[in-house]
TrEMBL record:
Annotated organism of origin: Rubrivivax gelatinosus
Residues in Tr-type G domain copies: 13-268
Any Pfam family matching the protein: GTP_EFTU
GO MF terms, alphabetically ordered: translation elongation factor activity
Highest taxon above the source species: Bacteria
UniProt protein name: Elongation factor G
Entry function: Catalyzes the GTP-dependent ribosomal translocation step during translation elongation. During this step, the ribosome changes from the pre-translocational (PRE) to the post-translocational (POST) state as the newly formed A-site-bound peptidyl-tRNA and P-site-bound deacylated tRNA move to the P and E sites, respectively. Catalyzes the coordinated movement of the two tRNA molecules, the mRNA and conformational changes in the ribosome.
Keywords: Elongation factor, GTP-binding, Nucleotide-binding, Protein biosynthesis
InterPro entries xrefs: EF-G-like_DII, EFG_II, EFG_III/V, EFG_IV, EFG_V, EFG_V-like, P-loop_NTPase, Ribosomal_Su5_D2-typ_SF
Amino acid sequence: MPSTLSGASAGIESIRTLAFVGPSASGKTTLAEALLHRSGVVGTPGSIERGTTVSDHDPLERRMQHSLNASVMHLTHADTRLHFIDTPGGADFLGQSLPALEAVETAAVVINAATGIEPMAQRMMDYAAMRRMDRLVVVNRIDVPGVDLAALLTQIQAAFGKECLPLNLPADGGARVVDCFYNRAGDSDFGSVDAAHRALVEQVVEVDSEFVDRYLNDGDVDPSELHKPLEQALREGHLIPVCFVSARTGAGVAELLDVIVKLLPNPTESNPPEFLKGEGAEAQPMQPEVDPGKHVLAHVFKVTVDPYVGKMGILRVHQGTVQQNQLLYVGDGRKPFKVTHLYLLQGKEHVEVARALPGDIVAVPKVDELHFDAVLHDAAEDDHIHLKPLDFPVPVHGLAIGPKRHGDEQRMWEILGKLVDEDPCLKVEHVAATNETIVYGLGDLHLRTLLERLREVYKFEVTTRPPRIAYRETVTANAEGHHRHKKQTGGAGQFGEVFLKIEPLERGAGFEFVDQVKGGVIPTQFLPAVEKGVREVLTTGAVAGYPVVDVRVIVYDGKHHSVDSKEIAFVTAGRKAFMAAIREARPIVLEPIVHIEIAAPDSAMGDITGDLAAKRGLVTGTANGAAGSVVIRGQVPMSELTAYQSRLNAMTSGQGRYTISLSHYDPVPPNVQQLLVSQHEVKEDD
C-alpha cells in the first residue's frame, strides 16, 4: 500500500526543502550521502569512486564520476521530512541545477574548503538572490590538512556579504563543530564561541525593534525566542548562515541536519515563488496559498524520459493537495490526465505515496503531456498560471549532427526531442541555409554528454562535425549573360537560348526575377523554366557553393525552336546564362556578422576586447553588470567564434558567458574568399 505521509511529518510546518548547488568537486553528492546515512536511510554511505551513491545513479555519472543531472532525495529527521536535490556543478549543466532552485525554499551553496570560492558558487548565490530565496553556505572538507578556515570565512564575507555569519564553528582541527547560535560559551578553532554568538544574535534582532530594545537592555536574548525574526532575516537576505562540515568524516553532519530542521524555513515561512496569471504584457503577479485545502498548483521543474519507462514529471506542490487518481490539467490543456501513481524519489528508487502537500516534491510517471515548466492544476480558472521564467544562459555551442545509417533521420529527431525535453539548455534546429541539423548546448562537455546518451541509452549512432558557416554569395556590378543550349541525340533534340542581365540589390533585399522578353522569342510557357534554372544557381551558388542573394535577374531576349524547345532546355540555358553573368559581375562572398554580448569579470575586460579585435570584431559598448562584472557588446564574424566558449573560459577562469544573434552580412576578406572559392568544385552539366 502507498504511504500517506501521515504522522507528525504530514504537516506543512514539518517539511523542509533545499538544493545543494555550487561548483563541481565541492562534495555535494558526498554530503547528500552523509545526510542519508546519518538519518538511517542508507546503512553504509555510497562512494563516487565505486559508483554506489544514491544521487549519481545514471551509468554515465558513475563512469564520469561527477553529477550530470539533478537528483531528488528525501529523509526524515526529528519528525521532519526533508526533500533535498543534489545538482551538477559544471557550468555546462545549468539546465539541471537552476530549475532545482524553483522547487525549494533554501539554496545551500556548497564550498570546497580546499579550493575556496569558485565561480559557480558566486553564480548560484547570485541566482538565488535574484529569486529571493533563503540562502545557506555549507563549507565542506573542513578536515583537509592545512586549510585556513578562518581566512576562508573572511573571503566568503567579502564575496557574498557581511550577512554571512557562522551558525557553528570547526573545533579540534576540523574533527568536530560547535554550535554558536544556541551556545554562548566554549572554544573553537577560531577562538571563543561567544563573539560568533553575539554577532549572530545582533544580526537577527536588527529586523525586529522589540528584540533590539530587549537586547540593548539585557545584553542578550534567548535564541529559542528568535524563530520569527530569524526567518524574516533569512527571507530578506539579512542573514546568510554558514555551516562547517566534513561529508567524508561525518564532522558537522548531525549538526547540519539539526540546523535544517530547527532554523531553516518551512513552506509557509519563505518568500513565495513568483507566479504570473495571464500571458505577455497582460500577465499579473499572483501568489499561491500554502494551504492543502485550496485548488492544486504544482510546478514541473524537471522531466526525465526513459526509453523503457517513458516520461516522468518531477514537481513541487505549491498549493492544494495532489492525490492518487486525481484529475489534473497541464497548463491551458483542455484534457486532464489521471494521477495513476505518485512517487517520492530516492535517486532512481520510487516510493509510492497517496498524496502530496504544499512543499512536497513528488513525481508523476507516464504522462506524455507533461513538459518542463508546466503548471499542473485542477481548476479551470487556473489555466493561464505560470512561474516567472528562469534566466537561462542561451546555448550557442553548436554541433552538426546526422544519423550514421541512412533513413534514420526521423528516429534521430525523435530521440533528440526527448533529450531536449529533459534539458532546457539544449536546443535542436534544422538550418535550411546549410541543410544541417544543429544541436546547441552550453559547452563542449554538454554536447559530449548528449552524444554519450545517444549511444549508451538509445543505442543510436551519429556522425558529427562543426557546423558550416552560412556564407552567402552576391554580385557588386551589372553584367550580362548568354547561353544557347542545343543537344541532338538522333531523335528529338533540345534547344533553348537565353539572354539576361543581372543587377545588385541592397543587402537583405533578396531576389527579383523580371520578364522583359518581347515578341515571343521565348514563349510564355518556357519562362518559368528559365526562372527555375536561375533559382537552381541561387541555391547551389556560382563561385563558392553558397546561396546567391540580393540580385535582380532580367530576361530580355532568347530563341526557341518549334520542335526541339523543351522545358529542360530552358532550365539549362537559364542556369548557365545566370552563371556566366555572375562571373562578370564581380561576385563576392558574404559572411554572417553577429551581435555578441559577453558577461565577464571586469578584470578580464581588456583581454576580451583585445581578443575581439584580433577576431575582426568591433566593440560597440560596455555596461556594468552584477557586482564586479561587466557586459561587453560588439559585432564579430560568426566564423571567428568557433570554440569561443573555451577561449572565453581561459580569459575569465570559467566565469564568462556570451550570447549571439544575427546582425547582418558583410563581405569576407579577399584571402578568405580565395580560400572558399578554391575549396569549391563547380560541377556543370555537359
